Amino acid sequence: MTELGGVVRVTVIQERGFARSLVASAVEGGVLIRPRRGWLAVPSADGMLISAARRGVVLTCRTQAARLGLWLHDDSGKPHVAVGPNAAGRRRVDAQVHWGSPIVPRHPDVLVDPIENVLAYIAECEPFERALATWESALNKSLVTMEALRGYSWKPAARLILERATPFADAGLETYLRARLRWLREPIRVQIWIAGHRVDALIGDRFVVQIDGAHHVGAQRSEDIRHDAELRLMGYHVMRVSYTHVMFDWHIVQDLIMRAVAQGLHRAG
């Protein structure tokens, strides 16, 4: 049971040669539990998987994206689950329920959606730039590739995201910056190497924008200062902004970038 993920259908166990009487004995002795008719679980199994089996749903969208470590705008809200098009009896699940046929067919034994289905629901469920950030996070983690994604029949929202997505953004804030400055029509490259380190974004030829998260303290902060100095000696202009600036004070960031571009700081000397 543990090797199979801790929560599986009874038929799967029986197909592996375990008799019904042995399964019943394990349940009676508390070694296994029955989340729902036809399912078994070890008591120490992932609680979300046990809950999914109990309710007859599949973890998907924001919930499964978080489980995969993908970038999300926030972590609030109800769990997101999917059910099949004929699952009318499960409408009372206390969650955000996604209905309809998935991009990739689901085997009856699965309790989590494959990444393609997760991204398809994200595209419909989240505002564009948030969805784009999650898609780019999946690309950056190599959970999917651009080539593979182009082979599916996406709905319009997902097709637009696929047109704009790149696999290079290391965090959602870099996606936000690129998407929000697209109107400038200046080249914006993210996560490129300059002077032995990655920079978050390079606008044009010479304007570097670095986005500081919570980890930019101590030794990391000292290294950032050293790298900034090296970039300036090489002729780059560097601007640092924080997570708070991008998320809550974007108008300030945009104004500073617009003024820098107006002064030509993005152009090579």
Short description:
The radius of gyration is 24 Å and the shape is elongated. It contains twelve helices and nine strands. A four-stranded mixed β-sheet has the order 6-7-8-9, with helices on both faces. Strands 3-4-5 form a three-stranded mixed β-sheet. It has a two-stranded antiparallel sheet with strand order 1-2.
Keywords:
3-stranded mixed sheet; alpha/beta; 3 domains; single chain; 12 helices; Endonuclease, Chain A; 269 residues; elongated; 4-stranded mixed sheet
The tally of strands reads 9
Specify Rg, calculated over alpha carbons: 24 Å
Count every helix, treating DSSP H or I runs of 4 or more residues as helices.
12
What is the end-to-end distance? 65 Å
Structural class computed from helices and strand pairing? alpha/beta
Strand order, main sheet: write it out.
6-7-8-9
Overall helicity:
40-55%
Largest sheet: 4 strands, mixed
* Percent of residues in β-strands: 5-15%
Q: What integer is the average pLDDT?
A: 91
One letter per element, helices H and strands E, the order comes to EHHEHEHEEHHHHHEEEHEHH
Spatial shape: elongated
List segments where confidence is low: pLDDT < 50 over at least 5 consecutive residues.
Answer: none
What's the structural domain tally? Answer: 3
What do you see in this structure?
The chain is of the alpha/beta class. The protein folds into three domains: about 5-55, no CATH class; about 60-165, no CATH class; about 170-260, 3-Layer(aba) Sandwich (Endonuclease, Chain A), CATH 3.40.960.10. Helices cover about 40% and strands about 15% of the residues. It has helices at about 10-15, 20-30, 45-55, 60-65, 115-125, 130-140, 145-150, 155-165, 170-180, 220-235, 245-250, 250-260; strands at about 5-10, 40, 60, 80, 95-100, 190-195, 195-205, 205-210, 235-240. Strands 6-7-8-9 form a four-stranded mixed sheet, sandwiched between helices. Strands 3-4-5 form a three-stranded mixed sheet. α6 packs across α8 (about 155-165) and α6 packs across α9. The longest helix has 16 residues, at about 220-235. The mean pLDDT is about 90.
